[in-house]
């Protein structure tokens, strides 16, 4: 009887660790979310001009959602990947986009960004 209670307690403790620890282990923001949030920015990133309001809304939304280091690194990796796949991106515009939207992300949006250093 005592050993079965110990087994139940151990299993319960392991379940709690898995449930509480799993959000910390993986980024919850997908590249699809990053892409859809920042799709309104493509024209600006290619040609400059005025930053569209939906672009800044997407930038602010992503910044608010990226609460953990894995989230921020995941968003960084998605931005890095996207910046290399979208043709005609002006990386000067990309690097300045967060500040134009009133957001501080702590790194430059560029294919050369080392996302492992993002905290």
UniProtKB/TrEMBL annotation:
A biological process from GO: lipid transport
Pfam families on file: Tryp_alpha_amyl
Domain Bifunctional inhibitor/plant lipid transfer protein/seed storage helical, residue spans: 31-115
Top-level lineage group: Eukaryota
Keywords (A to Z) from UniProt: Disulfide bond, Lipid-binding, Signal, Transport
PROSITE patterns: PLANT_LTP (PS00597)
Record-linked SUPFAM superfamilies: Bifunctional inhibitor/lipid-transfer protein/seed storage 2S albumin
Signal peptide: 1-27
Function (record text): Plant non-specific lipid-transfer proteins transfer phospholipids as well as galactolipids across membranes. May play a role in wax or cutin deposition in the cell walls of expanding epidermal cells and certain secretory tissues.
Family statement: Belongs to the plant LTP family.
Name of the molecule in the record: Non-specific lipid-transfer protein
């Amino acid at each position: 009887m005592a050993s079965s209670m110990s087994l139940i307690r151990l299993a319960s403790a392991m379940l709690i660790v898995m449930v509480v620890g799993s959000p910390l282990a993986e980024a919850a923001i997908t590249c699809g979310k990053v892409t859809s949030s920042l799709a309104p920015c493509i024209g600006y990133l290619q040609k400059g001009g005025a930053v569209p309001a939906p672009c800044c809304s997407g930038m602010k939304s992503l910044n608010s959602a990226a609460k953990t280091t894995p989230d921020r690194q995941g968003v960084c990796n998605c931005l890095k990947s996207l910046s290399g796949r979208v043709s005609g991106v002006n990386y000067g515009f990309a690097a300045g986009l967060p500040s134009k939207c009133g957001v501080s992300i702590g790194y430059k949006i560029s294919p050369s960004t080392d996302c492992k250093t993002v905290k």
